């Protein structure tokens, strides 16, 4: 397979997984304050995403794919909020185990990775276009 087409395929797989990563991060951020709806109920549990490399036999390149979307098993932080619908008999509420700073850092990293893969696609398309132009001129 053409090396430029292989580069396009690898970059496209990178775009796909970073898009999925951004979706997971945005879901975590949207639920950063989602508590349970009953005393002692568990709040939103942070989602995690992991990737795996997969060999593409057609190109010989290594593609990336989503391996797993799991749950973060860290303990829930507890806050004293008497009167809250999810407060236990002592007034403590289990809060989601989402750290907004970590999610924002993950979002920034995923965004930069997405942009890098997009730039690879743009460059490969430009090189393919230049090759076609050279072939026309001969």
Relevant terms:
138 residues, alpha+beta, two-stranded antiparallel ribbon, two-stranded antiparallel sheet, 2 helices, 4 strands, 48% helix
Secondary-structure map with pairings?
Elements: H1 3-30, E1 47-55, E2 62-71, E3 78-80, E4 92-94, H2 100-137
Antiparallel strand pairs: 1-2, 3-4
Measured distance between first and last alpha carbons: 24 Å
Strand content: 15-25%
Backbone CA Rg: 22 Å
Largest sheet: 2 strands, antiparallel
Strand order of the largest sheet: 1-2
Order of helices and strands: HEEEEH
Structural class: alpha+beta
Q: Mean pLDDT score, rounded?
A: 93
Low-confidence stretches: none
Shape: elongated
Task: Please give the count of helices.
Answer: 2
The total beta strand count reads 4
**Helical content (DSSP H or I, runs of 4+):** 40-55%
Give a description of the structure:
This protein is an alpha+beta fold and 138 residues long. The protein has 2 helices and 4 strands. A two-stranded antiparallel sheet has the order 1-2. A two-stranded antiparallel ribbon has the order 3-4. Strand 1 and strand 2 form a beta hairpin. It is elongated and about 85 Å long. The model has no long low-confidence stretch (mean pLDDT 93).
């Amino acid at each position: 397979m053409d090396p430029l087409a292989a580069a396009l395929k690898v970059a496209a797989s990178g775009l796909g997984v970073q898009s999925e990563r951004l979706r997971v991060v945005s879901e975590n951020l949207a639920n950063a304050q989602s508590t349970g709806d009953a005393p002692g109920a568990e709040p939103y549990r942070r989602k995690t995403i992991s990737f795996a490399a997969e060999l593409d036999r057609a190109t010989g390149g290594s593609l990336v794919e989503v391996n797993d979307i799991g749950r973060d098993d860290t303990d829930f932080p507890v806050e004293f909020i008497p009167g809250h619908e999810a407060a236990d008999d002592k007034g403590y509420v289990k809060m989601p185990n989402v750290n907004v700073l970590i999610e924002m850092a993950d979002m920034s990293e995923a965004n930069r990775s997405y942009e890098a893969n997009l730039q690879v696609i743009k460059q490969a398309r430009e090189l393919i276009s230049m090759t076609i132009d050279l072939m026309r001129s001969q």
